[in-house]
Amino acid sequence: MHIYYLTRRTLSCFAAAVIVLALAAATNMLSQNPDRKASVPAVNPVYIGNTQEKAVAIMVNVDWGEKVLPAMIKMFKNKRIEATFFITGRFAQKNQELVQEIARSGFEIGNHGYSHPHPNSMGLEQNKNEIIKTEQVLTGLNVKVSKIFAPPYGEHQQHVLKAANSLGYKTIMWTIDTLDWQDPSPEAIIKKVLSKADNGALVLTHPKECTVAALPAVIDALRAQDFSFKTVTGILQ
């Protein structure tokens, strides 16, 4: 009888040891094979706003153009247009009064990174630092920054999106790219925007003379079609 109970006890200990070893092996496999871990949901950028409302948002990416911005601001104010300016930290540091004027005029300010690098070529922490540094510069100027981020060059690999998301920012792309940085004619900009305008469209522009020349006609034509103009944050709601 003693042999019987000893055998049962030995088998129970052996079984427990096997379970412990199996769990340890599984844990080790997961640590050595990250692909076996539970997948982390992808972060997606925003390409369009609320499609249930007949509205568009004009977004202006700013890392240069200080000579053109005053005319653009004046035109938007004359046309009673809401718009969103995505500004780099380095531009804000060099043009503090101009950036404060944009904010005082009631326009929305978004984050365009600090030094306009290629985000895809940088690590997650570097991307976070670009966003944080810009936010610090803008808030230091008493400028309210909306939690929206327009990545330079439109680069948006997952680590770029996750960097912004971890800081509470939505990454904003565009619906219509005017390509105004290539200096097209105002007529070309007008044709491109009006041919693609739709509910919730995000219209990407820059502070260029051709853009300032084109936008009044774009605004008048879209208003004639009963479109309204909102900030990026407003059109996402």
List the defining traits of the structure above.
single chain; 237 residues; alpha/beta; two-stranded parallel ribbon; 8 strands; 48% helix
Spell the H/E element sequence: HEHEHHEHEHEEHEHEH
Determine the strand fraction and express it as a percent band: 5-15%
Radius of gyration: 26 Å
Q: What is the typical, i.e. mean, pLDDT?
A: 89
The residue fraction in helices comes out at 40-55%
Number of strands: 8
SSE class:
alpha/beta
Tell me the major beta sheet.
Answer: 6 strands, parallel
What kind of oligomer do you see? Answer: single chain
How far from one another are the termini? 77 Å
- Unreliable spans: 1-24, 33-37
Instruction: Please tally the helical runs, counting DSSP H or I stretches of 4 or more residues.
Output: 9
Structural shape: globular
Write up what this structure looks like:
- The structure is a single chain.
- The protein is of the alpha/beta class.
- It has 9 helices and 8 strands.
- Strands 1, 2, 3, 6, 7 and 8 form a 6-stranded parallel beta sheet that branches. Strands 4-5 form a two-stranded parallel ribbon.
- Helix 2 (69-78) links the parallel strand 1 and strand 2.
- Helix 7 (186-196) runs parallel beside helix 8.
- Mean pLDDT is 89; it is low at 1-24 and 33-37.
